[in-house]
Design brief:
about 140 residues, alpha/beta, Rossmann fold, two-stranded antiparallel sheet, TERB2
């Protein structure tokens, strides 16, 4: 499931998650070289160091809650789980809310969308009345 992927694990992460990562073909590495960074506690000292790094401040790394791995294990799939639901922001961003309620989302509990889906292309906007695509042309004055 995680073959050819690397991850860093905070000391706050349950050892079972780490073992599952390795069992499914993942490799453990330093956080600066990892494809994924996992933590269970935004206040953990090793996670705090990542939040204070230039890489984090410049949006080069994202910390994910390790519950992502639990969900992957339950579903026996990584493709059916949206990792975006497991972003673990710094405590200052969490505003003291019960963040675990945000993390504990399952695809089955999400409301289904019944409308028509279409791809978004920059500079192309579908007309809400007739559905015809409207293209905006770029001029030199618009590019500045």
């Amino acid at each position: 499931m995680f073959r050819c992927r690397t991850a860093w694990f905070s000391k706050s992460v349950n050892e079972a998650h780490l073992k599952f990562w390795v069992q499914e073909g993942g490799t453990i590495t330093g956080w600066r070289k990892a494809d994924f960074i996992f933590s269970e506690d935004a206040t953990s000292s090793d996670t705090l160091r990542i939040y204070e790094s230039k890489d984090f401040l410049w949006d080069k790394v994202t910390v994910f809650h390790s519950l992502f791995l639990s969900t992957c294990e339950k579903r026996q799939s990584v493709r059916s789980v949206s990792i975006g639901h497991y972003v673990l922001p710094p405590v200052s961003v969490q505003h003291g809310k019960d963040y675990s309620r945000f993390i504990d989302l399952f695809m089955d509990s999400l409301q289904k969308y019944s409308g028509e889906l279409s791809d978004y292309h920059s500079k192309h906007f579908p007309c809400l009345n007739c559905g015809v695509c409207v293209c905006l042309t770029t001029t030199k004055s618009n590019e500045m």
